[in-house]
Specification:
Blueprint lengths: L4 H6 L13 E5 L3 H13 L3 E6 L7 H18 L3 E3 L4 H8 L10 H20 L4 E4 L9 H12 L6 E2 L9 H12 L10 H13 L37
Parallel strand pairs: 1-2, 1-4, 2-3, 4-5
Helix pairs in contact: 2-3, 2-7, 5-6
Bound molecules: iron/sulfur cluster.
The site of iron/sulfur cluster has 10 residues, from helix 5 and helix 8.
Length: 244
C-alpha cells in the first residue's frame, strides 16, 4: 500500500485496535471523500484492508459512476484492492417503496444502511473477512448510532463476521477528511445519494435562492475555504457537508 512517506509521517498516531486482534478489514465505502480518512488511518496502523463499493442508493447513474470512479482512482493510487459490487438499483427502489417522503435519518435511511451492510457482511463471510466497517459514520451529518445499529444488525445474520463500531470522527478524523478531499481533489457530492435526498436538497436550495445541484461539476480544491463546512446556514442533509 503506497501512501507517501511524508503524509504517513504527518498523520497522528491513533489507537486503532481491530476487534479480536484481526489485521484484515473489509471497508464498506460510501464515497472517496469519507473513506479517504479511514483508508489512510488503516494504512498507518498496518491494517490489511480491502474496499467494498456497494451503494445502489446513488441516483442518477451518472452520479453513481462519478462517486465510484473517484473511489477506484484513489484505491489504485494507493494499491488497495477495491471490489465493485452490484448497482442493483431496482432492488433499492423496491425496498424504499412507501418511504419516499421519509426525512433523512428516518426509516428509509435505516433500510438503506441495512441493505448495504448486509451485502457487505455476506461478501466478508464469503471472502474470509471477520471484520467489516464503513465510512458512512464519518460525516457529521449522519447519525452514527443509527449506522452502528445497522452494521451490527447486518453482522447478526452472518456467523463469524463482526461490524467494527469505531468512531472515525474522533482524534481529528472529521477535519482530516476535508484535508484529504482537497489534497486529492475528490469529486464534491452535494447530496446524500438517493433520488429523494436529491429532491429534498434541491427543494431546500430553491427556497433559499440557490441554484439546483449540477451533477458532475464540483470538485474539492486546495483553495476552498476550510470554514465552508462549518457554517450554520448549511442544510444538514448531505453526505459530506457539500452545502456551502
Ligand atoms: S438520504 Fe442517504 S442514507 Fe437516506 S435513503 Fe437516501 S441515500 Fe440512503
Amino acid at each position: 500500500m503506497k501512501l507517501e512517506q511524508n503524509i504517513l509521517q504527518q498523520r497522528p498516531e491513533i489507537d486503532l485496535t481491530v476487534p479480536y486482534g484481526e489485521s484484515r478489514v473489509l471497508l464498506h465505502s460510501c464515497c472517496a471523500p469519507c473513506s479517504g480518512e479511514l483508508i489512510e488511518a488503516m494504512i498507518k496502523a498496518g491494517i490489511d484492508l480491502t474496499i467494498f463499493f456497494y451503494n445502489p442508493n446513488i441516483h442518477p447513474k451518472k452520479e453513481y459512476e462519478i462517486r465510484k470512479n473517484e473511489n477506484i482512482r484513489y484505491a489504485k493510487k494507493l494499491g488497495i484492492p477495491i471490489v465493485d459490487a452490484d448497482y442493483d438499483v431496482q432492488n433499492w427502489f423496491n425496498k424504499a417503496s412507501g418511504m419516499e417522503n421519509e426525512p433523512e435519518k428516518g426509516i428509509r435511511c435505516t433500510m438503506c444502511f441495512d441493505m448495504r451492510f448486509v451485502r457487505t457482511a455476506q461478501y466478508a463471510k464469503e471472502h474470509g473477512f471477520k471484520i467489516f466497517t464503513s465510512s458512512l459514520g464519518l460525516s457529521r451529518w449522519k447519525d452514527m448510532e443509527q449506522i452502528n445499529r445497522s452494521g451490527e444488525f447486518a453482522a447478526s445474520f452472518v456467523d463469524g463476521v463482526t461490524y467494527w463500531t469505531y468512531n472515525w470522527r474522533k482524534q481529528g478524523g472529521g477535519a482530516r477528511m476535508y484535508d484529504i478531499a482537497k489534497r486529492e481533489e475528490f469529486y464534491k457530492q452535494e447530496y446524500c445519494g438517493c433520488i429523494y435526498s436529491l429532491r429534498d436538497t434541491n427543494n431546500w436550495r430553491e427556497k433559499n435562492g440557490r441554484e439546483k445541484i449540477a451533477i458532475g461539476e464540483e470538485f474539492y480544491q486546495q483553495k476552498i475555504n476550510d470554514n465552508h463546512s462549518n457554517s450554520p446556514e448549511h442544510k444538514p442533509n448531505v453526505c459530506f457537508g457539500g452545502e456551502e
